[in-house]
Each structure stands twice: as structure tokens, then as C-alpha cells.
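Progress note, sequence design subtask.
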């Protein structure tokens, strides 16, 4: 059976992936060998995918980027006011690249992780409230 095609023009697909990143960030925190840097990367990825879901829904083209501030900048001209607590998520961009490799970034502490996860969950709730419900069909 061929794999199911995931439509990148469907905002629900972007949100599905964002939820997965948030779930991984939550679930892996108890594993002894998992680094906070990697959990924060998942939080950053969740925010990035949430914003791309919103841009897809609003039919705003976006570049391939990990820069949260750039994506937020694209959202505002589409007629949507981005709350200050959501704009805070631009802080997560540093986890997209530098924090993933040894020597490029200071160790991420538990408090940093908690804040990153909180931001990701906040953005996810905000975008879910704005993006139309997913198409009906089986969930995987």
C-alpha cells in the first residue's frame, strides 16, 4: 500500500507536525540521555510549523527559514495582530541551529527548556484557534 500523501498546502498537516514536535518535547524530558538543547529544538520546530500553518491558511508565501521573527513579520501584513506573548517566541530561533551542535552555544538549562516548551504550547493554542479545523478523515 503506498504511503498517504501529506499535502503541504493544508494547514492541518503543518499543525499535525507541530503537535508532534510539542509532544516529543514533553515526552522526552524524562529520558536520561536527552539534552535540553534537543527538546528546545523541538519547541522551536513546533513554533515554526505553527506559523507556517497560519501562513499557508492565509495564502502568504514564505521562505524556507527557521527564523521565527521573519515568519511573524509575514503574518502581520495578512491582517492579523500578533499578540506580544506570541512574538516572544522569536527567542526560540537560537535553538534551530546553534544549540544543536557542540561548542556553538552554552548548555541549555531546565528553566530555559520550561520556557521554550511554554512558548511552543502557547503558539500552538493560538494558531489552533485561528486555523480552520482539519479535514475529516483518519488521523495517523
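Output:
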Amino acid at each position: 500500500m503506498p504511503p498517504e500523501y501529506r499535502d503541504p498546502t493544508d494547514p492541518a498537516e503543518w499543525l499535525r507536525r507541530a503537535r508532534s514536535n510539542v509532544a516529543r518535547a514533553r515526552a522526552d524530558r524524562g529520558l536520561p540521555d536527552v539534552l535540553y538543547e534537543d527538546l528546545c529544538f523541538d519547541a522551536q520546530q513546533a513554533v515554526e510549523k505553527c506559523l507556517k500553518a497560519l501562513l499557508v491558511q492565509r495564502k502568504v508565501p514564505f521562505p524556507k527559514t527557521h527564523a521565527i521573527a521573519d515568519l511573524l513579520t509575514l503574518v502581520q501584513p495578512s491582517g492579523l495582530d500578533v499578540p506580544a506573548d506570541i512574538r516572544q517566541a522569536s527567542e526560540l530561533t537560537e535553538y534551530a541551529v546553534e544549540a544543536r551542535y557542540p561548542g556553538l552555544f552554552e548548555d541549555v538549562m531546565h528553566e530555559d527548556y520550561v520556557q521554550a516548551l511554554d512558548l511552543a504550547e502557547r503558539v500552538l493554542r493560538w494558531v489552533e484557534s485561528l486555523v480552520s479545523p482539519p479535514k475529516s478523515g483518519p488521523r495517523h
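The mean pLDDT is 89. Work on this subtask will continue into the next period as scheduled.
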